[in-house]
Amino acid sequence: METSSKDRLRQMAGVLLIISAITHTLQVFVYGGVSGNVAAALYGVMYLVLGASVIKYPERNLLLLMCIIIPGIGGTGGVIRFLFMHTHEANYFIVLHVIIDMVVVPTCVYLYKDRDASQPNSMKVEEELVATVQ
């Protein structure tokens, strides 16, 4: 069975999230267990769950939405953390994480928006359902 470009994009986003999860955890061992690194490692656990889930359950569009929101928040937090909260030793894992988030978020936005475009009758069905209930 041939894999479509949308499937490959979804898999790429999932793999990048898994890589980010691993490096989020690694920074605890490289830079120490300070509170920022421990919090980042815990955030990495969410990335691992999201990455594996978006690959395993391609039909679940809520996962795409979560892959927009959580890495969007993480990327924003990473930029703030890198610019304003790092110590004398810069944590370059943060740069990698932000770059990954800058790829994952737009990819998932595209996939999520494309999902809406591929289902043009979904609004009509929802409107009919609401009219029936009323």
Strand and helix layout:
Layout: H1 5-31, H2 35-56, H3 61-85, H4 93-117, H5 122-133
Helix pairs in contact: 1-2, 1-4, 2-3, 3-4
Structure explained in plain terms:
The structure is a single chain. The chain is mainly alpha-helical and 134 residues long. It contains 5 helices and no strands. The radius of gyration is 18 Å and the shape is elongated. The mean pLDDT is 84.
What's the quick description here?
This protein is an all-alpha fold and 134 residues long. The chain has five helices and no strands.
List keywords for this structure.
134 residues, mainly alpha, elongated
Please give the largest β-sheet.
none
The beta-strand count equals 0
Structural class of the helix and strand makeup? Answer: mainly alpha
Distance between the termini: 44 Å
Low-confidence stretches: none
- Silhouette: elongated
Overall pLDDT: 84
Cα-based radius of gyration, to the nearest Å: 18 Å
Fraction of residues in helix: over 70%
The string of secondary-structure elements, in order, is HHHHH
Number of helices: 5
- Strand fraction equals under 5%
